Amino acid sequence: MSAAFRKAAKARQRPHRERAQPAARTKLGLLEKKKDYRLRAHDYHKKQNALRALQKKALDKNPDEFYFKMIRAEVKDGVHVIKQPKDEVTPEQVKLMRTQDIKYVEMKRVAEAKKIERLKAELHLLDAAGSGPGRHLFFVDTEREVQEFDIATRLDTVPELVDRVYNRPTIATLQRETVKGPTDPAHLKKLAQQRKNQYDLLRQRIEREKAMFVITQKIQTRKDLLDKTHKVKVKKETTTGPAIYKFKFQRKR
């Protein structure tokens, strides 16, 4: 056969195409190609080898052998479940853990109290919104002095500075020295807002410190309840305080 004839015969051949999958068998998955039989055979032999290994392990097993999963495992609703062992803690260990908890909370409370004192020292407890009404009492001897009482004269300052409870210079100081500090209304408003924010922060820290103190008391109460002495509850626990118990007096050696 000449080369020209072979070339012509090859040109007349139609390209090979995979057989289309019938629509009725689409639910069974994609049509398997000829080369996929190797993958299927490899998976089949792998599963057979695993089954043979399990059968050999079951035959070699000692029927009298005991292991803890025999008593920890059970079947619930057809599902194999392993029981989790409960944590066993002695009363001494519980006391120690509670003690560590109370030490940590107390440490945080002391740190918060130090921050409060430092913040108070910076603010000098100046007037602020929500800090409570401030009063300045003056004592006089007669009714006439009450009627003729002038607060600016009594404080020895100008009437414009009477409403200020801090940084209120006297008339002599104003005559001797010039006014120091900001006088621009916008700057004064900004300083007042900063002072208000500082007081809000101080109030939040005070509330946090009180909450930690209550937590410390509650943890200490629970720690005291671990004792086996007879006790009677006198007052229920609240959000602002721990429960109160009355313990039977017991003499210690």
From the alpha-carbon coordinates, what is the Rg to the nearest angstrom? 44 Å
Structural class call reads mainly alpha
Catalogue the unreliable spans: 127-132
Arithmetic mean of pLDDT: 78
Shape annotation: elongated
Helix content: 40-55%
Protein name: Probable U3 small nucleolar RNA-associated protein 11
Organism: Dicrurus megarhynchus
GO cellular component, one term: small-subunit processome
Keywords: Nucleus, rRNA processing
List keywords for this structure.
4 strands, 7% strand, mainly alpha, 253 residues, single chain
Structural features, described:
The chain is mainly alpha-helical and 253 residues long. It has a domain at 91-247. It has eight helices and four strands; from the N terminus they run αααββαααααββ. The strands form two sheets. The chain has a two-stranded antiparallel sheet with strand order 1-2. Strand 1 and strand 2 (79-82) form a beta hairpin. It is elongated and about 140 Å long. The model is unreliable at 127-132 (pLDDT under 50). Residues 7-17 have a biased composition (Basic residues). It is found in: Nucleus, Nucleolus. Residues 1-25 are annotated as: Disordered. Its main location: nucleus. Keywords: Nucleus, rRNA processing.
Write the SSE topology:
Blueprint lengths: L2 H10 L24 H24 L8 H4 E4 L2 E4 L8 H33 L19 H5 L3 H5 L15 H6 L8 H40 L6 E5 L8 E4 L6
Antiparallel strand pairs: 1-2, 3-4
Quick summary:
By secondary structure, the protein is mainly alpha-helical. It contains 8 helices and 4 strands; from the N terminus they run H-H-H-E-E-H-H-H-H-H-E-E.
